[in-house]
Amino acid sequence: FKIYVPRDSAAVALGADEVAAALLAQAQQRGLEMDLVRNSSRGLFWLEPLVEVQTPAGRVAYGPVTAEDVTGLLDAQFHTGADHRLKQGLVDEIPYLKQQERLTFARMGVTDPLSLADYEAHAGFAGLRRALTLDASVVVQQVLDSGLRGRGGAAFPAGIKWKTVAAAQAAQKYVVCNADEGDSGTYSDRMTLEGDPFMLIEGMTIAAIATGATQGYVYIRSEYPHAVATMREAIDKATAAGFLGADILQSGKTFHLEVRKAAGAYVCGEETAMLESMEGKRGVVRAKPPIPALQGLFGQPTVINNVITLASVPIILARGADFYKHYGVGRSHGTLPFQLTGNVKRGGLIEKAFGVTLRQLMFDFGGGSASGRPIKAVQVGGPLGAYVPECYWDLPLDYEAYAAVGITVGHGGIVVHDDTADLSRLARYAMEFCAIESCGKCTPCRIGSTRGVEVMDRLKNGDHQAEVLLRDLCDTMLHGSLCALGGMTSNPVLSALNYYPQDFGLAASVAK
Ligand code: SF4
Questions:
Q1: Rounded CA gap, 144 and 133, in Å?
Q2: Prior bond to 292 cis, omega within 30?
Q3: What is the layout of strands, in order, in the sheet containing 35-37?
Q4: Which residues does the chain have with pLDDT short of 70?
Q5: Environment class of 281 (CB within 10 Å of its CB; exposed 0-12, middle 13-18, buried 19+)
Q6: Do 231 and 253 meet the contact criterion of CB atoms below 8 Å apart?
Q7: Looking at residue 81, what is its pLDDT?
Q8: Cα of 435 to ligand 1 centre, how many Å?
Q9: What are the tens digits of pLDDT across the range 448-494?
Q10: What's the pLDDT at 152?
């Protein structure tokens, strides 16, 4: 019989390796012929390790399973026929999964991430095969028409970047995947690297074909050792099978791909600091222009996209731009893998089309706070995202609608806080985070963040005059910083001041 135990590092951290070992031992003891597949994670983290047993009706899920549960689980499945207390029913029928719109994450949890045969059996490489039949300009146009925007946080149209690189004249062009996923509460990049690496390889290869690049790099944060190992193995397999390297699928096109391990600086998620790091220098932000699309890695035209952006490309090429564009609202097309974390009952990966609301994500999917207390604030878009109060929880999620009320969607990270959270402390943490992670290139961020922590301490200690100074400082950092790290630090600080003034000891009427 066939049984699935995830190999995703979140599942492994919760004991998946021990569960797999116990299953193998039990199968040997009982003389059972067992095909144990280490699949990727479904992203239902409160149920991890989620074990799935193949049955004629479909895969039946059990979770969260420990090594001690394995004997009882096999007894229930194969002998007594009685329901086991951890049985979740058919995995495809679990509402958390059923109510999602999984496009990019369609194979997640379904396949063995390092099986090329499994990948191809689940629509893998269909986008690349189609792209190879098209003129490069048509491939770029497909991405433009799909409305795909950068999923790393900036939401810049991917097709425009590609068009710029394609039009640039140079002997060497590059495709770089930014996998330096440093935002708190985010893991969709990691899940993709570990759980569906061929999808990213396919997306990057399509980008190379479209723009004329022949060399690519995946820049992965050093805190992701499993992702680094999985990507390296996947690249070797794809190269050996002719999907990468010279003469891809006998098309005459060439694209070589390598992994570069990052060194642990948050600022290297900023694209130009990442390029510096890849060139062997200290990760310091470059002034723009020139833009990386014209002068990027080693001064050459470079496509830089985030993992999810590139991973969204295969389905656009395979199903067509219109199919993808049909999802979403306004100018926010397609889906976003939201990452629900913090004080929430059912944290996990939720891929939904734009237009979903925070309330739906936190309550319909998340089940409310883990503590059972009222939710007070939710931080959207990483450590430098705004704290969103309840008045915006029903706003359909869309880049423009959010920006209009000062919220950034960012990389889709959602961190929930209940009513015991002190927003003045959380906001101070954001300012301190900026001071620690600042690359030091520009004054508003380098000096401003350190002074900001001091001013916030004065405010917390009862010096109400410090509020004016803090707002002024945030304004300077917002408009005077060279990159988003310094510029966005005002988001958590001002949203905390504006919506939760009582946490700073200020009367509501004082807030602007
Ligand atoms: Fe460096 Fe901060 Fe300036 Fe960005 S805002 S360039 S991180 S000093």
A1: 18
A2: no
A3: 35-37, 2-4, 51-55, 58-62, 87-90
A4: 80-81, 509-512
A5: exposed
A6: no
A7: 65
A8: 10
A9: 999 999 999 999 999 999 999 999 999 999 999 999 999 999 999 99
A10: 86
- Positive or negative: CA dihedral 445, 446, 452, 455: negative
- The helix/strand count (H/E) of the chain reads as 21, 16
pLDDT score at 509: 46
Tokens of 74: 């096999």
Instruction: Name residues contacting ligand 1 (CB within 6 A).
Output: 267, 285, 438-442, 445-446, 481-483, 485-486
Mutate to test the pocket of ligand 1, among 441, 477, 491 (most ligand atoms within 8 A of CB): 441
- pLDDT score recorded for residue 75: 87
Burial 367-397 (b: 16+ CB within 10 A, else e): ebbbeeeebbbbbbbbbbbbbbbeebbebbb
- Beta-strand ranges (E) seen in 233-276 are 256-261
Pick from 441, 153, 489: which is nearest to 281 by CA? Answer: 441
Structure tokens at 117: 């045969």
Q: Is 277 left (phi over 0), alpha (psi -120 to 50) or beta?
A: alpha
Domains parsed from the chain with CATH numbers? 2-98 (3.40.30.10), 116-325 (3.40.50.11540), 328-418 (3.10.20.600), 423-510 (1.20.1440.230)
Average pLDDT, the chain: 95
DSSP 3-state percent helix, strand, coil across the chain (nearest 5) = 45, 15, 40
What's the pLDDT at 83? 83
Please give the Cα distance from 213 to 192 (Å, whole number): 23
**Spatial contact of 148 and 158, defined as CB atoms under 8 Å apart:** yes
Token output for 335 = 């889906």
471 CA distance to ligand 1 centroid (A)?
19
ipTM for the whole predicted complex goes beyond 0.95: yes
- Let me know: does 388 contact 377? Beta carbons within 8 Å: yes
Q: Are the C-beta atoms of residues 369 and 344 closer than 8 Å to each other?
A: yes
pLDDT of residue 36: 97
* Residue whose token pair is 């100074």: 469
